[in-house]
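Might I ask for a little of your time on a matter of protein folding? The record follows directly beneath this note:
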Amino acid sequence: MGLITIPQNHTALVTRFGKYSRTLRGGLCFTIPGFEKIHTVPEWGQVANKNGRFIELSEQQMNTGPRSVVTSDNVQVKADAMISWRILDPVKAVFDVDVLPNALRETALNALRSEVGKIDLDSLFKARQRLSQSISAVLLETATRWGIQIDRVEIQQLELEDDTAKMMQKEAEAERHRRATATKALGDAERTQIVAKAEAEATRMKARAAREASILEADGRAKATMMAAVAEREFLSSLAEIVGKEQASQILIAEKMIEGYKRMSEGAANKVFIPNSFRSMLLESGGTGGEDGIA
């Protein structure tokens, strides 16, 4: 009898004459020398096995490595994913698929390319969670056939290719410049509008002040005229009591004429010709005058 010790949470697949026979679990087990042997998977490397012969059942972490993928708007992006998985059926994992780790990695990358190809660049960096869920859903059917379980898929890297990054940087700079120009133009327009409104308001205020001043001036003149008329009426009434109504009127007219000639003669170069009837007017009003002539 051939004795063999299998580590905990590992299994070993026994073949008899090259055909699968049975599965050995953790602990001390035996095989029939010459008839049975432990099936090895050296092509798996160090993934999900120990020494190439004990299949590991605990959770595994696999990184797909960065690969170039293309978005729906034809932008190249480097992307990779981390896959958490475990073997549920060692027989299917070993015999139903050729080199399980490689097949799982390539299937995940194909799913990643397919899902990224459905998204444009602007939405890609916001869709990590949705991408992870979509890739997990794509891997689910294949994982069942291979006897494994996909626990989760996480997008590790999403980076623009160098040429694409430079192009995007130029586009971003152009967009920032455009926004800055638009903001400046908007600010200039608002400033011009504010200045125009202020000037218009100042003009309206000046016009309102001038109108109010004119109204006040006209009101003052009207009041002054009214007061002068009242004073003149009272003066005429008082004078009429002394010299009579008709004589008082003539005196008042003569006074007006004298006042008018006085205003006309205020300028040094002005000459005023007094008519011949002026003396008789003064005599009739009770005033005194000199000879007719030029004053």
Notes: The chain has a mean pLDDT of 81. Residues 122 and 261 are 95 Å apart (CA to CA). The chain has seven helices and eleven strands. Residues 162-243 form the longest helix (82 residues).
